[in-house]
Structure formats: C-alpha cells, structure tokens
C-alpha cells in the first residue's frame, strides 16, 4: 500500500477529495432522504434536444468532429453569445467546444498558468477551482466574500492579495454556492482593478441563463474586458444537460489557439452526438429555458421566504438554483448542522465550509427539487430547529 502511494505525484497527493462527496455517500446509504444537495437541474433535457441527438445517431454521425467542435455548432454558439449577452466571438478561431464547463476550466488554467503563478479564487466558490489551479501548477489564492455584502466581491479585496505573481482572477456569476449575481456596475468596478494590475479573468458564466431579477451582464461585455477574459459557459444548467458533458470556451484568438492545443492532445473533441443535440438546443431551446427558469424562480421565492421564516436568514439569490442560508443562530458548525439534519430528519444539504472558509456558518440548499419536496424539507427543518 505504502509502496503504491509512493508512485503518486506530490500535487495529487496533496489534493483533498471534495467535501461534498461524504454527504452524498451518507445520504445514498439512507432511505427517504430529501436531497437538496446536488447541483443539477431536476428537469430532463427537453425532448427536441434529445430527438436531435437520436436523429444524428440514425444518420450515422458517429465520428470525431473538428478538434474545436462542429463548425455548425460554433456558429450557433457565436450567434447565441451575441444575441443573449452582446459579446462577439469568431466561430473560426475564438470558440472551443469542450467536455462540460469543467474541462473548459481545466484547459483555460493549463493554458495560462506557469509554475508558481497565483490565481485568485473568490470564495465561497465552486469546489473545483482551487484544485484545478493546483493541478495546473499554480497557487490558488482565496479571497473571502462576506454574507454582510451578500457574498459580493469587493474590488479592494483583489488589491489586498495581488502580488507580482498574480496571473488571473476566477469569477462566477450567478455564483455556486451563494446564488449571488454581480450587476454591470459591480463588474465594471472589478474590471477597473483587473486592468490596473493587468490580470486575466476567467469568467464562469455557466448559470447565466438562470438569472431571475435583472438583465444578465457577461464580463467580456464590460468595456475593455474582452481582450483579457476567458469566457466559460455550457449546456449543463440552463438547458438541463448535465449528463451530456458539453460546454465551451470563448476567448481572444491567441488564447483560444493555445487552449486548442491542449484540448486536441487530451480530448480530441467533445462527444459528437452531444454536439448535434446542442445545435438544436441553441436554435430552438429558448422557450424551454424560459419555462424552466420560471419554475426555478417560483421555487426560489417559496424556499427562500420559508427559510427566513424559520429564522435561517438568507439573502434572495439572484440566480442559479441555490439558497445559502446562515445557520449561525444554531451555534453549530455547518458540518454539524448538515450531518444532524441528515441523520435526524433525512434532509441532505451541503455544509458551507466545503466551498471555502467564508462558507462556514452557512449551508447550501439546491431548490432544483419539486415544490412538494421543498415543502416537506421545510417542514422537517422546522421540526429539527424546534428540537434544538
Ligand atoms: N462551474 C460551476 C460554477 C458549476 O456549478 C459547475 C457544475 N456544478 C460547473 C462549472 C461544471 O459544469 P459542467 O457540467 O458543464 O462541467
């Protein structure tokens, strides 16, 4: 055993397994659990999209595509980005179709990070960012946002951690796990600091379609930011296509060309049948996205109001499908709270500390669950809190 371990690289040995897994494994071993733990839509992919995939298989489109993805799909992505977010990318050499936003993040970081380069990660954050920075040979530098500001990054926080080694900043709006959305003005303030220190920005916009209260602003749409932004998006969340493993990168040509080298050697191309499905999603999926969004908004309103009524103070998240209530009134750590809630009332949530230090004192609840399940979860949480 010891001998086998000695084969591992130092980087991988140091990597900690995701804190979310432990709760999923525990919840999976129990019966009657209401899971508010998983970060994925509860909708099945719209039928038209599934049908387009089936048709592509019937037509025998089962070979590799171009490394960057089907040109037809890249053209659709280019039109979509312009139509929805007012950002313009050339399908010929500024777009790469990837295996989910996950691979897009990996490729982006590996293309820009030199050994020891620092990448600022705004926490609480999606659990993959810091490990992906480490795997790329960089050093993740966490910045802690605060519940006091609804977990919005304060631009001066960037200045407090910038060093000559800082290469990039990863932002995510709407955010996982907090649901926080940064508006145009807030992004412009970040842009100002980013330009001042000549940083690159990796903007993870995977939840851009799920923005409930205001018009979404894409980071490269902010003045002068396109040239220093790697835009990441995909089909998993807005189009309910998590299992298809399809995302994309949009970046200025020099960056995209470098990323394509990595993509071509490691992945060859994204799954062909999923690419045909994605063309249909972009051409005719807008009504389905709107329908799902309307449903999430309704569930968000119910769930967040109910949490506040229970005394678990929670800001109204502007996007994604997560509520991030404070459990500080219970005097438990978020791990203790999540574990007891699961064991005693069979409701699975994710302790906030797995998303970074400032997530301590909070839990992440996904409201991508039926209204009936959410109502039952609230009943159980009420009982749990009354017993404390
Ligand atoms: N970024 C964020 C913020 C996410 O929450 C997720 C999925 N949980 C991803 C990226 C990865 O998405 P994909 O399924 O496209 O790989």
Automatic annotation (TrEMBL):
InterPro entries: Aminotransferase_I/II_large, AspAT/PAT-like, NHTrfase_class1_PyrdxlP-BS, PyrdxlP-dep_Trfase, PyrdxlP-dep_Trfase_major, PyrdxlP-dep_Trfase_small. GO terms for biological process: amino acid metabolic process. It holds the Pfam family Aminotran_1_2. The keyword Transferase applies. Keywords: Aminotransferase, Pyridoxal phosphate, Transferase. It comes from the Bacteria. Belongs to the class-I pyridoxal-phosphate-dependent aminotransferase family. This is Aminotransferase. It comes from Anoxybacillus pushchinoensis.
